[in-house]
Amino acid sequence: MKHTTIAFLTLAIIGAVVFAAGCISSENETPAGNWILIGSGPAGTPATGIISLEITESNITGNSGVNNYFGSLIIGSDGKLTISGLGSTKMAGPGNLMTQEQSYYTALKNVTGYKIIEGDLILTDQNGNTLLTFASASSIPTGTWILNNTTGVTLSFLADGTMNGRAPINSYFGNYTISVANGLVFTQIGSTLMAGDEQLMQQESSFFAALHNVSGYKIVNKTLILSDKSGNTLLTFNETPAIIGKWLLASDKNVTLNFNAGGSCGGQAPVNIYGASYTLSGSTLSIGDDIISTMMAGTEEEMKAEFAFFGALKASAGYSIVDSTLTISDKDGKEILVLVRA
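Given the sequence above, the corresponding structure tokens read:
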């Protein structure tokens, strides 16, 4: 989340909000869960970026585009839902997100009911008018995705309503909106202007043309499918493995290992900056012998530590991730590196 300024982090009480409603669906359906805003008002105006709502048995929390908000919750046996003490942090952000945030809070204050239709949570006012529409968080394409059958083409959704990624040759960027009925639109797409192999340039042109024509999506078995207005599949992406991201060596947190979605990794060794390629398949991890690094010299102890670190990377054969700890093992299953999420 980008913020232009940070004003202060004191908490401000916005006011009590009362959700009083009967769910028109079955009694087993409940507003409890994790939701993402996909529309405001009866017309379902798309939200810019990610506005989240988490409802538990006793609390409401979420992020409203710039600030985190919270409140106390009571879910009545008669289908009513009451929120009180709604408050938020007080960070400042881009003007459009701040305006959207205040409209969101105003809508929350006017909510008196809810209904769940085809898995979407709809919050309504006292006249039954739709104020806010949410989709299940599990159905929203957040984070980074890898284009099917490729190693380097990616698509990342950022919480501020922007997206970026790696095309066959160039890096690209733009904006996105997610609306009701799984609508997804990319706008203001731009890219760097590097030239490359003719075949790759043709693939890149086709990729950008597909992005411009996207109007819908669905997530099936951890696969993101982007479609055009007629429902035809344009692009298919796979979920990014959990290993993607930056890790710190548990025994020396100045040593880092960053796995990129495109099949490359690297970071800071005890002395030098390094890079390499890697492959994943299930729980199998292989970091290539093609490790390259700067050529700085350190103390004898530091250089020994660096050689040992590079040797462990080259011996990698498997991995596991438990509670934000990455354990890399060799071909015999012996633990050779332990890292923690940065």
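The radius of gyration is 24 Å. Try to locate this feature in the token string yourself.
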